[in-house]
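Subject: sequence -> structure tokens, single chain

Hey, anyone have a minute? Need the predicted structure for the following. Not urgent.
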Amino acid sequence: MTGASVDADYPGTATQRMINGRERAMSLSESELSKDWDSVVRPKLLWAAGLKDLRNVAPGKGNTGHCFNDFNHVDATTMSIEEADNENSGRVVGMAYRNPLGEGIRAARDETMGEGGSWCTCILGSASEPPADVAHVQFRSKIAWKLVWVPGKNGKDFSRFVLVDDAGVELATGVPSGNLPTLAERQGNYNVVKGGRYARAADARSV
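Reply:
Had a minute. Here:
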């Protein structure tokens, strides 16, 4: 991890890349994040995550078409490239036993965001304290940010999302239009983080 400090708790973190990803997320205005999901908002999220918008390559070869498009693949994880080949080995409950992602990470990473790699990792386990998700367990890495859909005052809206950092602090928000992930996916996203640090910003916007 040349040129970046090593995180004592999560030594797999590409620290400067994580910081750069948060800065990219914070640079996105609510207006920008409230445009068409597929053509404007999701590409901006990929950019803020340090990922290329690759839709026409095979899964596992760098395809990012699923990133931020379901309930689960919403962690912008910035790991040192030495950690990219780490496998799950059954440690994250609900995930594939191996979950090999290294080849895709190398193909899809936006090298302009700094050293290391990026991936839209799965959030299962992230309501635990400490988080027991793919980022923190498989890659030993903090996240740059996580996308969480907001229940709203009636608890059923889920039209708004927030981007929150590893501590759960809100970085950006938007109300996109167009072909969003289904309502069930958006509800499922919140339900995974409910009760944990990553739900706090969404809860605050639902009061």
